[in-house]
Amino acid sequence: MSIMPEGGSGDPPRQDVQQRPDYPPQPTYTPRSSYVICKICDRGTLVSKTVHRMSAPVVAIGFILLVPSIFGIAVSALMLVGVIAYNGDQSNATTIEPSQQTQSDFDANFRRNCARGVKKKNQEVGYSASPQLIEQYCECALSTFNETGSEATASQTCLQKSRDGTLDAVGKEVNEFYSGELPHEGRESGGVRLVRVIGSVSGAVLGITSFVGGLLGWLLVMKKRVLQCNVCGAVVNAS
Hints:
Blueprint: E1 36-37, E2 45-52, H1 56-96, H2 105-125, H3 131-148, H4 151-164, H5 172-179, H6 185-221, E3 223-229, E4 235-237
Antiparallel strand pairs: 1-2, 2-3, 3-4
Helix pairs in contact: 1-6, 2-3, 3-4
């Protein structure tokens, strides 16, 4: 009779040496959408868009201000360039056409005062000098004064030449100086300066006004970036 231990015969049940650790069950991963869910309708997603900052009527007014302002700035720049070009044309015309003589303000005043003084002295002594002789004397006095810088020396020298009959004859263009048919240099320069001043001021005023109007128009038509729902159309500022 065999005696067996209680619980059966044979080797005791062997347990696994390496047991698997108990890991908690991993939840199922559901990737979320990269778009932001609209908080208004909870159905749509917010999409980045660029819209005008102002309403449609204000934007229309902005374009009305902006387009003419750009045109005005261009016209202002052309006016300033034209003023500079006009001054250059006047200088080139004086250089290219040397036959058209001009006289400076000093020469015009000297000739006018000289002719008036000679006529007055001749009337005092009862002597009537011809206009040609007066012009010859005054041209001699002007030339001598430019060389010596002395009116007394010019008067004595030219008076002696007048007595000797050695005064140089004057040409037609010099004769026109005394008759006033040719403009002197000061009047021509004054006209050029007047055109330059008027053109510069007009161009500057037009340019500044156009710039201010263009800046205001640009502010009215500026855009901003927003987030808009593709379902309900709700708009949220992106910043």
